[in-house]
Design a protein that fits this description.
Elements: E1 2-8, H1 14-27, E2 31-36, H2 54-63, E3 65-68, H3 82-89, E4 94-100, E5 113-119, E6 129-130, H4 135-146, E7 158-159, H5 165-181, E8 186-191, H6 200-213, E9 218-223, H7 224-233, E10 240-243, H8 245-258, E11 268-271, E12 274-277, H9 296-308, H10 312-328, H11 348-360
Helix pairs in contact: 1-9, 1-11, 5-6, 7-8, 9-10, 10-11
Bound molecules: nicotinamide-adenine-dinucleotide.
Residues 13, 70-73, 83, 262-263, 278, 281-284, 286-287, 293-294, 297, 335 line the site of nicotinamide-adenine-dinucleotide (NAD).
Length: 361
């Protein structure tokens, strides 16, 4: 069977990483037909100023599966994040970021094996923002005041935090289903329901309802700040964590730090009938085109994709090859060596070559 997959190379280090991953995935023996589609600042001009061309979205919708490299977002100006735009357009509501320690990775922690499930359509990330000084912001502030809710300072920008029953229910349904499929034991809901009663409070209430419908799995909850401390002190007490959009973004980087950093943190975004596989890290523009960046997070995202398309045996084989490569510590990039200027560090494409040799050996 040939799997048709949309390949979005992205920008910055994205093209080198996705090329390394494509080669490694093909070396597993699984047959792919790649539908290459572009997005990001580099292709804007060709698409009438649109960094997220409709043809790219169409390709992902048609194939249902995409492997995506990171894409740069200009800070504080220019277009809205292509990554957020893609999640919105495809309604990719659940982001999964497994964080697992591999033997040989330089980290302070051992035996961490967490899965972060982040809701990605709602919360303060939903993009409902009012700029400081704009007429509509003054009107909103006036409306709030009329309803007894005065802003602490009049010269404020305002971001709105929507959290719905629908959005919360579907991400917890997904998380319990994912936990069961992956043989996990416990789901933890993370929130600040003590402070934000109408948003995080709703999140916790719905989480408990869904947990009651999935009583075969353990369930508990943690307040977000306490969760951060607990993760640093006892990461092995936790299994699958489910978080609203903003806490999920932050805590998934924290969890990536526990297992050795962004170089080994894969990810996937799931919607109804579509899934996009991409690493947690960004486009690291300073390493673009240098053949230096670590492709393992992108390759491990490819492992997640293999499982998603039912190629479990290839997924297990490739993950084993990655684990072996890390444990040997030879064919790894600079960030996985004892010091960052280690002359024995290899390049992005060499990591792919070493994995291909293991898979074909
Ligand atoms: P980043 O993840 O690109 O980089 C953070 C640090 O980690 C940098 O020092 C970088 O050099 C290093 N790093 C990242 N990936 C690496 C790799 N594979 N190998 C070796 N070192 C690596 O985060 P940032 O600097 O905050 O963001 C850069 C750009 O990426 C921004 O425009 C941001 O918006 C974008 N971004 C995109 C995505 C995505 O496409 N999903 C995710 C996060 C950030």
């Amino acid at each position: 069977m040939v799997h048709r997959v949309t390949l979005i190379p992205g920008d910055g280090i994205g093209p080198e990483l996705t090329e390394a991953t494509r080669r490694v995935l093909e070396a597993t023996g699984v047959a792919f037909q790649w539908d290459v589609a572009h997005a990001g600042a580099d292709v804007m001009a060709e698409h009438g100023g649109n960094p997220l061309p409709e043809a790219t979205l169409e390709s992902v919708r048609r194939n249902g599966v995409a492997l995506k490299g990171p894409i740069t977002t200009p800070i504080g100006e220019g277009f809205r994040s292509v990554n957020v735009g893609l999640r919105t357009a495809l309604d990719l509501y659940a982001q999964v970021r497994p964080c697992k320690t591999y033997r040989g990775v330089r980290t302070r922690f051992e035996n961490v094996d967490l899965v972060i499930v982040r809701e990605t359509t709602e919360d303060i990330y939903a993009g409902i923002e009012f700029e400081q000084g704009a007429d509509e912001t003054a009107a909103l502030a006036g409306w709030l005041e009329q309803h007894g809710r005065k802003l602490p300072q009049p010269d404020s920008g305002i971001s709105i935090k929507p959290i719905s029953i629908t959005g919360t229910r579907r991400v917890f349904d997904f998380a319990f289903d994912y936990a069961r499929r992956m043989g996990r034991r416990k789901v933890t809901a993370v929130h600040k329901a003590n402070i934000m009663k109408f948003t995080d409070g709703l999140w916790l209430r719905v989480a408990r309802e869904v947990a009651a419908e999935n009583a075969d799995l353990e369930f508990d909850d943690r307040i977000a700040d306490n969760m951060c401390m607990q993760l640093v002190q006892h990461p092995d007490d936790y299994d699958v964590l489910v978080l609203p959009n903003l806490y999920g973004d932050i805590v998934s980087d924290l969890a990536a730090g526990l297992v050795g950093g962004l170089g080994v943190a894969p990810g996937a975004n799931y919607g109804k009938g579509v899934a996009v596989f991409e690493p947690t890290h960004g486009s690291a523009p300073k390493y673009a085109g240098l053949n230096r960046a670590n492709p393992l997070a992108q390759i491990l995202s490819g492992v997640m994709m293999l499982h998603h398309i039912g190629e479990h045996e290839a997924g297990v084989r490739l993950e084993r090859a990655v684990a072996e490569l890390i444990a040997e510590g030879k064919s790894v990039t600079y960030d996985m060596k004892p010091t960052r200027d280690d002359p024995t560090a290899v390049g992005t494409s060499d990591v792919a070559d070493a994995l291909i040799a293991k898979l074909e050996g």
